[in-house]
Amino acid sequence: MAAISAVGLTKSYGDKAVLRGIDLSIPAGSVFALLGPNGAGKTTAVQILSTLIPADAGSVRVAGHDLVRQADAVRKAIGVTGQFSAVDHLLTAEENLMLMADLNHLRRREGRRRAEDLLSRFELTEAARKPVATFSGGMRRKLDLAMTLVGEPEVIFLDEPTTGLDPRSRRTMWEIIQRLVAERGVTIFLTTQYLEEADQLADRIAVLDGGRIVAEGTAEELKRIVPGGRIRLRFADAARLAGAAALFDYATADAETLVLDIPGDNSVLTVRAVLDALDNASLQAESLVVETADLDDVFLTLTGEGAR
Q1: Which of 162 and 130 is assigned the larger pLDDT?
Q2: Domain boundaries, the chain
Q3: Quick check: pTM over 0.85?
Q4: Angle CA(69)–CA(158)–CA(202) in degrees, nearest 5?
């Protein structure tokens, strides 16, 4: 069953079209990442899907509920963590969670139980009674996500959740997100500008540019649709480098590093053909590295100037 489905979703502000008829189908219990440059419409998509703003056109269902006719049911089924922390810095971590429990109309005992469970799960128990103003950025982000989980949502929207975090804190957040899906079966809708984040977390990725989805698939599927793969050979001297460069069309030689880059699809047959050609010419490389296209290549090729 699709946790989120959208058909023909559009949104404009005056003469500026932000979303131009996007379609989505996101299976329950999966992580979906929406990539795109600044201004592509990622945050607008999250705001519409989480009932914060209305769409101009299109139909949407979230957790089995119609976004317009059953908006209250959608709100009960979702949690949202925005780009900026929503915690109250004057309260303690425990008080922030109890506040969310009250907003979710939980009984006092149940609210306290969930707060204690979330503080333990996010490794915030020791800081539970400290003011949030004393927390590091990573701790605030963890508390922000913990507050989203007080209502036990089926679908969680994470709008650039690791922006501004150091690499260690970012990886901690990745582990938390992966556990949420594995242990609780929630659906994660993630927007991010960190391509490694999407590669690590997402079951499927969509690339949004100019208000349109220009590509969608798994990380590996997206990497295969753009050029970027290459075979990199390093030689012992300039003579061998020049001899090898003459064997391959479109190869690029770097005389300073003695490296030859050969564009290719990186299949076993291609690598074998390269080695056979070198062997027939009695040339031997010092090293061989096969490099595949990454999401950076996908992003740069499909968005902005690269797309044009």
Answers
A1: 130
A2: 2-224, 230-291
A3: no
A4: 105
